[in-house]
Amino acid sequence: MAALVGGLALGSTEAGAQDAPKASNEADLKALMGQLEALKASYAQEVRRLRELDMQVQAMQARISGKAGGMTAPAAPATDAAPVAGASAPTEGYASSAAEAQAAKDAARRSVNDVKQQQSALFNQKLTLENSLTYARYDRKQLTLNGFLALDAIFLGNIAIENVESDSLTYNFAARWGVNPKLTLNLDVPYIARKTIYQKGGAGGSAGAIAQEETHGDGIGDVTVSANYKLFPEGRRRPETVLSVGVTAPTGREPYGLDWKVLERDDDDFIRFAVPAQQPTGNGVWQANVGLSAVKTADPAILFGNIGYIHSFERGFDDIDGNPDTVNPGDVKLGGSYYFGAGVAFAFNERTSLSISFSDRMSARASTRFKGGQWVKVIGSDANAGTLNLGVTYALTPHATFVSILGIGLTPDAPDFSLAFKVPYML
Hints:
Layout: H1 2-65, H2 98-108, H3 110-119, E1 127-150, E2 154-180, E3 183-201, E4 210-220, E5 223-232, E6 240-249, E7 260-265, E8 271-276, E9 287-298, E10 301-312, E11 315-317, E12 330-333, E13 337-347, E14 352-363, E15 367-370, E16 376-377, E17 383-395, E18 401-409, E19 417-426
Antiparallel strand pairs: 1-2, 1-19, 2-3, 3-4, 3-5, 5-6, 6-9, 7-8, 9-10, 10-13, 11-12, 12-15, 13-14, 14-17, 15-16, 17-18, 18-19
C-alpha cells in the first residue's frame, strides 16, 4: 500500500512539472499575439496618417501651382510591405490603382498640353481636327495734300482725307496628323470674307465733300501644308523644341489684275477716285516658311516662344498695273518676312489656362517688274505688324478644347484688333 501511494505521488509530481512549461508557452504566445495585433493597428494608423499627409502636401502644391480645382487626390505612398490583415481600406477619394494615379497626372497636365498645341503641336495625338473663326478690323486714315507752300508757311491747294476701313472674317479648317511621336503633318484651309469701305475727301474738287464706296469679296484663301518635327523633348533645363516647315499655295484670289470701279475723274480725264470691284482672298504667290518654337513648363507658368522666316517666290501676272485704264503684264516678288513672338501662360487648374504674348512680323519691300523692264521696289510696301495677344483655353471634354484669343494691334500695319475662337478636337 505504501508503495502504491508513493507511486501516485511521484506520478502527480511529474505531471505538474510537465504542465508548467505548457502554461508558460501559452502565456508567451498570448503576449506575442497581443504585440502583433498592436503593431497591426499601429501600422494601419501610420498608413492612414501617411496618406493624409501626402494628400495635404499635394493639395498645398496644387494650390500654389493653381491646379487644385477638381484634381483627383494622389495615391498613397508606395511601400514594400504587403497589405496587413485587419488594416483599414483606403479612404474614398484616393487613387486606389496605378491607372487612377496616371489619370490624375494626365488631368493635371491638360492645360500644359493645350498651350503646347497652340504653339506647335501635340505629338501624342494621332489626329486633331480644328475649326477656327477669326475676325479682324483695320482702319487706316491718310492725309493727302495736293498743292504747294507759299512763303514756306501758307499751303495753297486741296486737302483731302483718305480712309480705308476693312472687316475680315476667316474660317479655317485644320487637320493635324501625328505620324509618329516626333512628326506631325498639318493642313490648313481658310475661307475668307472681306468688306472694305473706301472714303476720299475732296470729291468734286471740294475739300468738304467726301466720296465713299463699299466693296466685298469672299472665297477660299491660300492653303498651307506644313510639318512639325520635335528636335528635343522637354528636360529639366531644356525646353521642348519643335522645327516647323511649310508651303503656302496661291489658291486664293490674287490682288493683281482685278477689275476696278472708277468713281471720279478730273476734267482732263485723270482718275481721282477708283476702288477694286472685288476684294482679294490671297497673296497670289507661292510661299515657304521655316520656324522654331519652344515651350518650357515652370510651374505654375508655361513659357513659350517662336521665331521664323517666310520666303515669297516671284510670279508673273497678266496685269500688275494699278491704273484701271492700262494693262501691263509683269512679275511680282513680295519681300521676305521675319516673325517672332514670346509669351507666358498660367494654368489655373487642369482645364483652364490664361496666356499673354507678343508677336511681331516684319516684311521687306515688295518688288515689281513690267515685262521687259527692271525690278523696282514698291514704296510703302514694307510693314511691321506688332500685336499683343491675350488668350484663354478651356477644356470642354477630354477630347475638345475651346480657345479664345484677343489680339491688340500695336503698330499701324497690324489690325486694330482681332478676335479668334478655336475648337481643336483630338481623336
